[in-house]
TrEMBL record:
This is Phenylacetic acid degradation protein/carnitine operon protein CaiE. It comes from the Bacteria. It holds the Pfam family Hexapep. Residues 176-198 are annotated as: Disordered. InterPro entries: Hexapep, Transf_Hexapept/Carb_Anhydrase, Trimer_LpxA-like_sf. CDD domains: LbH_paaY_like.
Length: 198
């Protein structure tokens, strides 16, 4: 793993977490139980502290950083989608940050909220719990239903199982020259919210 000390601060990673070898973790960083850190993620605790609590996931190519002296907190089951950037913000419990979203300094996102993909959450914005916010700049457009929160939670629960699967089955290998017979199938038990089961 690409894990580095900085100015005497050494990252703390729970043994059940999975940090991909192509991710980078630097300095004053705490990574909790069953956390998934994807390849290409950059978590840089050089100027302040980053706390990633139990059950979070920080997916591929995400960046987490801050201004000097700031602590960034991802509460339990925060879900940071592919390519998102978190800079000096507080992310509530069971929040989903959509793909390629930017969340700026001094932002506070309340529990059980969803920020839509490619949104820009400007400095100092407070988003109440159970909100759906989208756009550039982001605006709260509605309160989330129990169904929407349950869908988000189910997706995060998949990611909470992923660290163990990665520890047990992810190996560097040579590619096959052709598919093997009886190649396994992937499960199909989680869908985009509006899609119905076939």
């Amino acid at each position: 793993m690409a894990i580095y000390s900085f100015d005497r601060f050494i990252p703390v990673v729970h043994p059940t977490a999975y940090v991909h070898p192509q991710a980078t973790v630097i300095g004053d960083v705490f990574i909790g139980r069953d956390v998934y850190i994807g390849p290409g993620a950059r978590i840089r605790g050089d100027w302040g502290r980053i706390i990633i609590k139990d059950g979070c996931n920080v997916q591929e190519n995400c960046v987490i950083h801050m201004f000097p002296g700031v602590t960034v907190i991802l509460e339990e089951m925060a879900h940071i989608g592919h390519g998102a950037m978190i800079h000096g913000a507080q992310i509530g419990r069971n929040v989903l940050i959509g793909m390629n979203t930017v969340v700026m300094d001094e932002v506070e996102i309340g529990d059980d909220s969803i920020i839509g993909a490619m949104s820009f959450v400007p400095q100092g914005m407070t988003i109440p719990s159970r909100s759906l916010a989208v756009g550039n700049p982001a605006q709260v457009i509605k309160k989330l239903t129990d169904e929407m929160i349950a869908w988000k939670t189910q997706g995060t629960e998949l990611y909470m199982k992923l660290p163990r699967q990665m520890h047990e089955t992810c190996l560097e290998v040579e590619p096959l020259l052709e598919p093997e017979p009886n190649r396994p199938e992937h499960p199909t038990d989680y869908f985009p919210l509006k899609k119905t089961r076939r």
